[in-house]
Amino acid sequence: MLKLSAKKTAGFAGDMLVYFLAESGKKTVSSSRSAIRRSIRNAWKSGDFTGKTGESYWFYPNSADKDFSARRVLVVGLGKLNEDENLCREQIRLAAGTAVSIAHRLKVQRLMAVLPEKTGLPAATVAESMAEGLILSNYRFDKYKTGHKSEDIKVRIKQCLLHDGGLEHSRVRQGMNAGKRAAEAACVARNMANEPGNGWTPAQFAQFARDVASASDLSCRIIDKSAMKKLGMGGILGVNQGSALPPKLVILKYKGAKKWPTLMLVGKGLTFDSGGISLKPAAGMEDMKYDMCGGAAVICAMQVIAKERPKGINVVALIPATENLSGASAIKPGDIITHYGGITSEVINTDAEGRLILADALAYGIKTYKPDAVVDLATLTGAVIVGLGHHRTGLLSTDDELVAKILDAGERAGEPLWRLPLGPEYSKQINSKVADIRNIGGKGGGTITAACYLQEFVGDTPWAHLDIAGTAWNFTEKSYVPKGPSGIAVRTLVNLVRNWKKN
Ligand code: BES
Ligand code: ZN
Ligand code: ZN
Q1: CATH number of the 2-163 domain
Q2: 318 CB under 6 A from ligand 1?
């Protein structure tokens, strides 16, 4: 949908031409066109528009005006441009989102966005952020809308052109393509999450991974139910017992070079979480189709990694995928399972299933691939929403260096995280009388005790856990983030991998 334009703004005969203006004196619109300058000056003088975040105005140029062939010209405020590069990136994404929401309201099909010139950011960064904002905000999930009800049909921008606004064309192209790859992958993750439980199953995770691998030179391996039995993956198998669909452990591998360190990513791919025998309440249970967002983030980040082939790093991704249902053979409270590697666990609550499937994947992945660092992502606990709301992802880790890398990657993406502690006092909460550990930690610190469970399976490997239960859907209100699944962590992971060597 997004292309770099070689056309002059005056020659663009589409539905809407968009300029971005900073609040303070910075000259972000450096068009030589006198008409746009005059318009902005007049808007400014009237006091109606000062360039603040969220502000905008548009006008309909006269057909005799040689400066414009577009039907409408929109001017959007960027706000006072921040000194901090990451905050500035976010300002551009937000302004792009504001432009797109106006375009949607006016049923705009063809849009040209002119990059702001003097922002203080490198040209590639401006283009990258703009591309992300435009693509992420133009997202809609209407696959199941047949048009049966006419009011359901919502428009999306069909063609979006990016004009370099006077910035170096080749840098703009490079930045735009980077932003496009990451944002499009986040939209794919949103699609997976929007799919209902009967539209996105463990088998579909496996098929997607095979497709990614065959379109690139990633290698793909699917561990199926019979192989899981041989390997002794009692966690995934235990959770899967109540489901009619077989589980999958999906593995994708990007091989850079032998001498480079290996990062292992693990994502919870619970395609529907009913709670199992410890059944969840009916109200809102439909939201549990989103319980695969960790897996979606990991697999979609791998899709970008496959295209970019980053230097200085190897990446292996594991997605344990199953449903958690309460069929006749379902696991029961009190049952004891044996994880891959031999640790036994007393399943007190079958709804604390995410940690059970992740434990097998972590232990197996570390044993098999001997990674230098491990990052897992999961919609793991309701408790993280109590603690951090829908505004930040919970981060728990045994390694300060890894934490610094992840916090930085998240800030860059506009996907902030907040670190929570680990410690023996919390780990004690998952002691069991009859097995090595139990799967819930009792009152208090639910997000932390869930992470403590995972910690039992990572040994000394530097490890970080991202609890995205609050941010994977209904993420904090932003112009470029719709209600529903956010595609969280796809761009954070892409940044983490892109900058692995630099940090
Ligand atoms: N998938 C849920 C976590 C969740 C809850 C995600 C709300 C998004 C919104 C997870 O499997 C779960 O059910 N966790 C339980 C753990 C409890 C039984 C210790 C929870 O958080 O209630
Ligand atoms: Zn659950
Ligand atoms: Zn769950």
Answers
A1: 3.40.220.10
A2: no
